[in-house]
Task: structure prediction
Amino acid sequence: EAGVAQSPRYKIIEKRQSVAFWCNPISGHATLYWYQQILGQGPKLLIQFQNNGVVDDSQLPKDRFSAERLKGVDSTLKIQPAKLEDSAVYLCASSSSRVPPTDTQYFGPGTRLTVL
Amino acid sequence: LAKTTQPISMDSYEGQEVNITCSHNNIATNDYITWYQQFPSQGPRFIIQGYKTKVTNEVASLFIPADRKSSTLSLPRVSLSDTAVYYCLVGDLRDSWGKLQFGAGTQVVVTP
Result:
């Protein structure tokens, strides 16, 4: 079974530029998550989708971050404009069910963003 | 959400058993306990989950006492490849995966 795919793996931009990350979840997984992981900390949920609808975006900085999941499959996360404090690893995860413990949550390798 | 406390780091030698204890004094009736493992440059990986007593799988064992105020992840006979950060998460059975909050985790370093 193919895992969660993310691209790019690394990205370096200057502050105030925009950037986009892409995620392809495991086939058939209805729930998709984007996390932000700052160095030395655990992942923090930014947004959760159920199919193509948003379930939870309470921690998404909506003035600069946006995400979409068209057709309930792939998803993109965008930052515009980027700030220095956005330097982090952005992780995508998916699960077949919203509610544990019926299934586990699978994470992709992440995209490491450096904002200069 | 139940707050969790776990050691910042632990060191071990190859072949030893590593036990990581997580405290969750205000765990609620519907909360369950989940552990993730994260290697450098990878996303976290689910390793084990339990509600009470003992759970064992091919990777680890999870011990949960009757009062459920703590839990212990046991990694038998660790190898160098078990060097990773281990996260303890506590969450409601009725909530989604997204409601589980990651702390800073425990950095386990295994040396020869």
About this structure: Chain B has one domain: 9-95+102-111. The longest strand of chain B covers residues 84-92. Chain B has a mean pLDDT of 93. The CA atoms of residues 47 and 58 of chain B lie 9 Å apart.
